[in-house]
Every structure is written in structure tokens, then in C-alpha cells.
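Summary for the funding panel

The consortium committed to producing paired sequence-structure records for every protein in the target list. Below we show the first two records in order, beginning with the earlier of the two.
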Amino acid sequence: MPTNKPAPLPEPLRYLQPFANALAKVPPGELNEDIDPSRLESALRKRVRGLDEGAAEAELEKDRDLLERWLEDKPDHPAHWIRGYLLSPTLATDLTQPAELPPRGPQVSFVAPEGWKVKVVSSRLDLKRGKLIGTIMAVDEFSFDLMQRQHELWVGPPGLEVRREVQTVRHGEVSGKKYVYRQFAPAPWKRVEYVLRVPGGFVSAMLDAMGADFDEAPFEDKLHTVRVSGPT
């Protein structure tokens, strides 16, 4: 994978340099339409901020022309990808419209046991305490039913000593199924998964200690606090 920084862009185009540097780290064969342009779009929005569509088009055309001239003797420079992006006929229109906000998904709340770290991610909480990691993720009712069927139909992999325990659980207004998976050979391993109906919706939850044994009781003592809010 390329690691060298590309030649610096002309001074008026330096606002594009961070994205060009990022493109330089991508193998040439992968510089295609699958590249995420969000960082480039953000830089271009700042470039035309406060301009109407006509003025924005004029500024972008000026930058595009400068970039094209500068790239004439640099056939391998990653900024050719930026040039292609600047050729979009609707670019000025798109950049002078308010940016579309990503759809807001459901939010999960949980009062974690003391000493646990909680990271809020879209529609999910990531949990950690020492080697023990976990997640609580909001799901819709279809996924809630599907996950239970998948767990019930689980068959252990051949050649490994793996067992599954299924329990019906209830913690206050939270109820559902708990699945404990244990591997005894060739190496011990444990994973606990939950598929739960909670106030506001449904969640799937998981605990895993990367091969080490663990006690899920402190986590379960707080399951009654799980809530889902917002659109599902």
C-alpha cells in the first residue's frame, strides 16, 4: 500500500490536501466510486459557504481548472480522483443545499454496573470492563423474533465440544431469552447473548471475555434499566 505523501497541491487548493493525502494511502486499483467522499464534501462545503449556486459554480470551476492544469504532468497523483469528483454537473447545487442529516435511529440507555465503561454508538451501547466486552443494540420486532429462532436452531460445530444453555429471563419490565454458549475443548470459551423485549422496543445484548470465564450476574442485575427511545 502506498505510504508516501503526494506532491503538495497548489496553494489555492491546499484545502483539498488532507483528502489527497488520504487517497494516497489507498491502493491505485481501489481508487474507484467506492471511496467515501464525505471528507471531501465537507471541505468543498466550507469552500463555497455563504455563496449562492451561481457563485459557487464559478469558484468550483476555477479550482477545477487549476487542478486540471496542475495534474497534466502528474498522471499518478491521487488528486485525479478529486478532479473527477469536481466534474459532477450537480456539485454546486448539492453543496449549496443544506447537508442531509443521517436518519436518527433508536437510542439505547442503560445504567451500567459500577466500574464499567460505556460508549454510545448509533442505536447501540458498547460496554467494557477489563477483558470483558459487551454490546446492547436496538433491534426491530422482526429481528427480535428472527434472532430467537436462530438461537433456538443453533447446532454446535462438528469436532468441538460446545454447549448451549437457554433460559427465559425477566428483570423488571425487561424480559426475553438468555443463551449461554460454552466451549470446553480444545480451549475453554464462553459467550452470553440476550434477546430482550424492553420498555420502548427490543434489544439484543452480548457479553464475551475473549476466551476467559466471567460472571454475568453484575450485568444482569442492571438489565432492568435498559430502555429504547426514538424511532425504530
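The next record, for a separate protein in the list, is shown here:
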Amino acid sequence: MDLTDRQLELKLCETYFSIIKKTKTFNISLEELCSESKVSYDNAIKIIPANFIENYFFLKILISKIDNEVIHELKTEIIDDEVSTVYDKILEGMTLRFEKFIVYKIAIQTLSQGLDKKINIFFKLLNENFSFMTNLLKLVEKQNQNCVLQNVKSFALNLVFIKVLEKFLQTQDQDIDSIIGLIDKYLTEVQDLGFLFGFLKKES
């Protein structure tokens, strides 16, 4: 059965990060990628840009895939949850995201070696992250928010994510509990600063 372009992208993406994890290098040729993934070169060049390394093509695909999975899983978890607070649900959503990031941690660390590359990684993640946080807020908040307030909240959650990501990339630690602790810590700090206008207030 022939694969769709999206399926081919995902297959090449998984292979790309698998190679990085094994070799700890991101200078992978399209020929090598095709050989490892068993995707024909002719099919690959139709959907993969020539500068796929420089523009972090596969990183964006990976993040999009992870974010869609997280939103779907969280939606399933909270559909009948009338007990957890908005704060709890946001904490759970961000935790699920980092749980999936852990699988690719070595590869992301390899991609972000060097200050200039790390800044590029952060900006790529930040762009995707804003979309994720907006979708997360829409999912966990019961009432509709005006666009300006929602953007403020998404921006604040972006700050939390980037601060946790920075710590995440500095260690080899695979322990999700330490990540949860950091997310909780920074969410509380944001709340205390008033950036979210109390929407993350922990309910007793």
C-alpha cells in the first residue's frame, strides 16, 4: 500500500531522530535517511526540502505530531473530569508533553549543541509552543476568553515551557518527576506574578 506524503514525512522523521540518537550527529544526508527508512529517494525529494537540516524541518514535524497526541490524550483523560482544577489540567498537559519529549531528549540535545543552534531550537519550539498552549487553554477552560487575554495566557505558559525546557536540555536526567516539579514551580511563579490574572489559582 502506498503511503501518503504525511505518512512518508512521519516515517522519515522517526528515522531521522533515531539516527541522531544513535550517532549523536545531525549531519545526516537524505540518501542515508532514505536507506535507513526504506523510503525511495525519488519519493523523499518530492516532500523533503533540500535544506531540511538548516530549517529544522523534522523538528517541526515532530513537535506537531507530539502536540496533536498530547491534546488528544488529555481530551480523553479530562472529558468526564469534574474534580481537577484548570491548574491541574494545564500541569497534566505540559507534563504529557515533556513525557513525549523525553523519548527524543538525546536527539534534541544534539540538535541544540552550540548557543546559536540552541537559540534557533528555542525559537522553533516557541513558535510551535504558542499554538500548543492556545489549544491547551481552549481545551481546559470552560468559558471562552477574549483573544487578547488568551494571548497573554499563552505567552505566560510559553515562558514556563521555555524555562523548563532550558533545564531539561542541561541534564541527561530522564526522571519525569523532576520535570513535573519544575513545571509546578514555574507555573506557581507566573501565577504569583499575576501574569495570568489568577486563572491558574489552585483551588482547595
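Regarding this second record: Residues 5-47 form a domain with the Arc Repressor Mutant, subunit A fold (CATH 1.10.10). The chain has a mean pLDDT of 84.
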